[in-house]
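quick q for whoever's on today - can somebody do inverse folding on this one?? i tried earlier but teh output was garbage lol. tokens:
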């Protein structure tokens, strides 16, 4: 007996039936019990591939995720890198590339049970590969925390359009913690429904310390996530951390020192704080240009509103650019240009507070890494929606995190290859080139097909060579 697989999809069942008709006479020297296929029968091509499938499919298998016997999981992971919108776009992706069609209900049903089936396995696969990557020399791992925003409403029925404070209250923030290696490769992750405090973080880190036999990871968080109380508790418990901070919220003495600071591109200035931590200030010309451009755009928008009479004395508050408004003696409202000019001193400056001996030169790179991680793990609200309501939002979030976790691992592996082979090629440029790689299927006798790559450029040929495991 020989099995060709099983399926619940009509097209794939017909494909397996056609393969069985051809295979049976070769296995047994006897007449087939099946009817001869009709001459007009078209064998549908399930094997045509595009760039994302060729490149990231190869990386997917190389990392060891092919141990998960589910093609839909692989499709979801790869499509998340190129089509991170609604899962309806996954259906378009499969259809456009002549792959098997899956119903939207089957995708959502798979997502709802994904977390319980594959989370532990994906983490073990990632750690096994990470050990090979660093040749079993683990150390300098970090635990990065990023916020996730999504709809808080769980009620059934159509969504109502809301504005102001009511709209803001309908969005809830959960926090995702990702354990990464010293090269940024993801190892494991957790989802926190509330902002994690020092006790919760310590329990999580100790769990990974015992599970993977590694040293205590360094906590890395964006500004505003770790409260002052949490950071004081981390210092007391001697838990290493690096957190972004808002410079303007520092005490008057430190602010004055920073204003008088002369700092050049790429330089890091250090300030000792009273709570056994140190403040690291970094300057970037690129960031300074972005800050200046953003401020000028907001200033023009505020000037336009002022000219149109849309700004009154009730608009003066500390929110956004309204903090640059001032009230004149005749009760008219004007813009405080002196205050805006003083803001230019802070352009291009980013700051981090830490209690570690982490190399100062490496810390400024944490911000872009957190941003890249947030963009990879972001969850579209349409991914959480289940008609007629939002019955399983938590399961959907956990499933999307699992998919994004594996997608991020593929992305970091490609980044590692590019850094080793061609540092001048950015990850964004590589993804754009990969998306342009196509294969055209050719029909052969007896319903078979053969794929032929379309003409590729030099960068595409290099990438295909590098990922040919």
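ok took a stab at it. sequence:
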């Amino acid at each position: 007996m020989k099995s060709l697989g099983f399926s619940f999809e009509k097209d794939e069942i017909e494909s397996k039936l056609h393969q069985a008709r051809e295979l049976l006479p070769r296995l047994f020297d006897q007449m087939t019990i099946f009817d001869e296929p009709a001459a007009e029968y078209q064998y549908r091509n399930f094997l045509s591939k595009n760039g994302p499938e060729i490149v990231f499919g190869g990386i997917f298998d190389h990392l060891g995720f092919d141990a998960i016997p589910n093609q839909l999981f692989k499709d979801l992971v790869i499509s998340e890198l190129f089509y991170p919108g609604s899962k309806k776009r996954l259906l378009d992706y499969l259809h456009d590339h002549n792959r098997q069609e899956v119903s939207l209900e089957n995708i959502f049903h798979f997502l709802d049970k994904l977390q319980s089936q594959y989370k532990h396995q994906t983490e073990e696969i990632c750690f096994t590969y990470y050990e090979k990557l660093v040749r079993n020399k683990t150390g300098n791992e970090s635990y990065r925390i990023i916020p996730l925003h999504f709809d808080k409403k769980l009620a059934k029925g159509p969504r109502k359009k809301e504005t102001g404070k009511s709209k803001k209250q309908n969005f809830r923030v959960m926090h995702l913690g990702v354990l990464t290696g010293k090269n940024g490769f993801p190892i494991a992750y957790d989802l926190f429904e509330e902002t994690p405090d020092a006790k919760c973080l310590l329990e999580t880190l100790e769990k990974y310390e015992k599970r993977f036999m590694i040293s205590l990871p360094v906590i890395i968080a964006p500004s505003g996530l770790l409260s002052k109380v949490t950071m004081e508790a981390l210092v007391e418990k001697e838990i290493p951390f690096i957190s972004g901070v808002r410079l303007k919220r520092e005490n008057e003495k430190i602010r004055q020192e920073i204003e008088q600071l002369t700092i050049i591109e790429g330089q890091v200035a250090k300030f000792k704080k009273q709570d056994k931590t140190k403040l690291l200030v970094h300057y970037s010309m690129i960031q300074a240009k972005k800050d200046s451009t953003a401020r000028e755009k907001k200033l023009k928008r505020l000037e336009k509103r002022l000219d149109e009479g849309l700004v009154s004395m009730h608009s003066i508050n500390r929110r956004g650019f309204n903090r640059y408004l001032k009230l004149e003696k005749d009760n008219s409202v004007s813009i405080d240009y002196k205050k805006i000019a003083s803001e230019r001193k802070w352009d291009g400056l980013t700051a981090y507070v830490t209690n570690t001996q982490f190399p100062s030169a490496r810390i400024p790179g944490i911000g872009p890494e957190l941003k890249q991680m947030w963009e990879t793990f972001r969850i579209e609200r349409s991914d959480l929606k289940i008609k007629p309501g939002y019955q399983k939002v938590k399961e959907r979030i956990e499933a999307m995190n699992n998919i994004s976790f594996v997608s991020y691992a593929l992305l970091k592996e490609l980044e590692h290859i590019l850094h080793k082979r061609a540092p001048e090629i950015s990850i964004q440029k590589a993804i754009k080139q990969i998306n342009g790689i196509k294969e055209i299927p050719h029909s052969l006798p007896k319903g078979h097909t053969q794929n032929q790559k379309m003409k590729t450029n030099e960068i595409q040929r290099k990438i295909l060579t590098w990922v040919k495991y």
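fwiw The radius of gyration is 27 Å. also The chain has three domains: 1-44, 51-240+356-435, 290-345. so keep that in mind when u check it
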